[in-house]
Amino acid sequence: MNYGYARVSTKGQNLDRQLVELVHFGVEEKNIFKDKESGKDFNRKNYLKLRSKLKAGDLLVVKSIDRLGRNYDMIIKEWYYITKTAACDIKVLDMDLLDTRADNNLLGRFISDVVLQILSFVAENERTYLHKRQEEGIKIAKQKGIKFGRPAFTLDRKIQNLFACYDADKISLEEMLARLHISRSTFYKYYQVYKGLSAHYF
Fold this sequence. Notes:
Radius of gyration: 27 Å
CATH topology of the largest domain: Rossmann fold
Strand content: 5-15%
């Protein structure tokens, strides 16, 4: 049995291009499982349904390796589970070398496994490199006096007057939140600060 898997990271993204290519390859629509979830792990509702259906000799088809997941260490573990433990095959449409089908012969399957390991190595180095560049960029920015994070919320006279109106029941909580563009928890946090200032001055 041929199964297809398509994934995008958010509900707003479109699966159509992946679905077209899977159907064109020969996967029936009823056998295509779709997720609109992050690829950080394999704990995805429809992927788990697909996994439970796989039997020895089945073929799993994906458009590209990152549709299977984005964590290459986990992809390798999942790849070996599917191809060795479950005795299924995997075909990645965007990369001919990632194809473990028996008609590829033993050498083809070996090459497929090696390519996956190389992709993992490259991805891990890329993550390390990007992380290092981010750290260096942040360090340089801090040396230049650039501050990170949300700007501090200051209780200027105008905001204190709003709190005073809230205290006098002239403004509702909803109106306060809308005017200040803050959440309820943030409001109560700064309301306590305001009460402290009021107690100090009055």
